[in-house]
Amino acid sequence: MNENVHHDDRTVNMQVKSLSDNEIQSLLRKYGVRPSKKLGQSFLKSRAVARDIVAAADVTKDDTVLEIGGGLGILTEEIAHRAGHVHVIELEAGLARALRDLLREHENVTIVEGDALVVALPETTKVVSNLPYSISSEITFRLLREHTFNQAVLMYQKEFALRLRADPGTQDYSRLTINIGYQAEVDSLMEVPATMFFPMPEVDSVVVRMKRRTQGPRAKRDDVFHWMVTGLYSYPNKTLRKALRIWFRNIGVEKSLAEEIVRSCLGHLKGDDRLRNISIEDLVVLADSILGSIEEGNIPDPGGLRSERVS
């Protein structure tokens, strides 16, 4: 049976060994679980996809791996075969029971029953997860903020993944793109069709590799950068000048200050630049100019606003 990923088109081969819908439904009934559309619960069926994800993460016995949302354990089991240890955080009590039963022969698996947005995150070298779609943004920012992973291989809804790594000037370039791109490098690895899940979601998924950004300019204060991006990119189709004026008005700052800020960035930015066209590098210049006005007392200090609020 062909269980390969066609890396030429980076789409998973459809002819793979999978759990049947009936097998998944039987397990869900056994453990009293009803898939929640609100939570974006869909269960991966293909063991071949799980193997390809773990292979992409280059998991070895030297790795301790964090998985968020273990589901019925198809991905967990593949990680356990390769990793030294796996920590799985699962919110659903029934699924946590299922994982304990289905993975009972794997002594290197720890099941943590709880909310991945709240529970303490164990220290691991890697994160490998088919993330619950309902918390994609929040959990990604929490991982970047609080975890020390050296590599994360994560599955997202396709639309979300496109926004993660969009280029300036495209419709998908957004506040999310900027706040993630400021902190991490993201590469697409493979596309996973919706048919690989039960219940079948409305959209396909994409697996990405995420590593912390080590090159490129940084703002003098990260909190000012993220605060500014949140304020401006509430109006992504506006020009820089118009967005600055609206944001300043909303935070009680004289909108005339927008012109002063624009002038201070000449050579990098112009007032009529569209926000969707502005690179992260030029936004760093803008953030440092705004910091100058904060230090002069013309703009209020965000006072340590953190990135989880600006995703």
Give the SSE layout.
Blueprint: E1 5-6, E2 11-12, H1 21-30, E3 43-44, H2 47-56, E4 64-68, H3 74-82, E5 85-90, H4 93-102, E6 109-113, E7 126-130, H5 136-146, E8 151-157, H6 158-164, H7 175-181, E9 184-192, E10 197-198, E11 205-212, H8 222-232, H9 240-250, H10 257-264, H11 280-295
Parallel strand pairs: 4-5, 4-7, 5-6, 7-8
Antiparallel strand pairs: 1-2, 3-10, 8-11, 9-11
Rg over alpha carbons: 22 Å
Give start-end ranges of low-pLDDT stretches: 1-16, 304-310
If classified by CATH, what would the architecture of the largest domain be?
A: 3-Layer(aba) Sandwich
The CATH class label of the largest domain is Alpha Beta
- Assembly context of the chains: single chain
User: Which structural class fits the helix and strand makeup?
Assistant: alpha/beta
Main sheet characteristics: 7 strands, mixed
Number of structural units classed as domains: 2
Q: Supply the number of helical segments.
A: 11
**N-to-C CA distance:** 42 Å
In short:
The protein has helices at 21-30, 47-56, 74-82, 93-102, 136-146, 158-164, 175-181, 222-232, 240-250, 257-264, 280-295; strands at 5-6, 11-12, 43-44, 64-68, 85-90, 109-113, 126-130, 151-157, 184-192, 197-198, 205-212.
